[in-house]
């Protein structure tokens, strides 16, 4: 399963490399736990809670609500 959309950072990247996101502007929560390359991980790791980002995601294995970020583009939420 793949999806593309805008997401709001709920919890910034933790020590394990996971980030908690909320669908923008809806309220579904999801977790990015894998990254396709270090640049995508660096982009997401630099974001603070409240930031909006556009992502291309794919399901991370068979885990419930865990996703792999294929690409990330920061969005100006102002």
Automatic annotation (TrEMBL):
InterPro entries linked: DUF7999
Residues annotated as domain DUF7999: 3-77
Domain of life: Archaea
Protein name: DUF7999 domain-containing protein
Species name: Halorubrum saccharovorum DSM 1137
């Amino acid at each position: 399963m793949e999806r593309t959309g805008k997401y709001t950072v709920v919890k910034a990247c933790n020590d394990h490399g996971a980030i908690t996101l909320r669908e923008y502007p809806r309220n579904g929560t999801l977790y990015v736990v894998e990254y396709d390359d270090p640049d995508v991980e660096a982009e997401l790791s630099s974001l603070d809670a409240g930031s909006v980002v556009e992502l291309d995601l794919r399901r991370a294995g068979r885990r419930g609500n865990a996703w792999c970020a294929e690409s990330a583009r920061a969005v100006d939420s102002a």
